[in-house]
Amino acid sequence: MEDFKHVKREGIGYLVKQYWSLQHIIVIAWLLISIIVIVTTSYLKTGIIMLIFSLLLTIVSFMPPKVCFDPALKCLTILNRGLNRRKFTYDLNDFEGFELQTMYISFIPLGCYLYGNFKNISHFKRPVISQSFSKKTMQEVVNELEDLTIKHNATSI
Which one, 25, 47, 104, 124, has the greatest CB density within 10 A? Predict the structure, then answer.
């Protein structure tokens, strides 16, 4: 079995690699701003409150969901970590395809999100499989996931 760049084998399933995106950069900027306020100004209380708030956001933000793609069991499992700890399991028999969505301000890309579309899930509650700044990276993730499903279907017949 060939090694994949964006998907790692774990047990019988495959973990989808998560990447930095816009919300991570915003949280780091808040953290840096709060440190600058504490060090360079006389607003110590404001800086400490901003630092505590930024640290809490950093802890929550850097806990991306654990996305496990299992072609053998035909399921996609998403384990949310952080404050909202829930596990969602989606049946790949209801799978319709992947969708890449890129957010822009003017012509500047802010991020690219990879969604999984399922028959019984509404358009607003579809699972986010991965995210990145680069549309190319997300397209590579899609290609690897499609290769996994094709290879598993070919070996199971």
Answer: 47
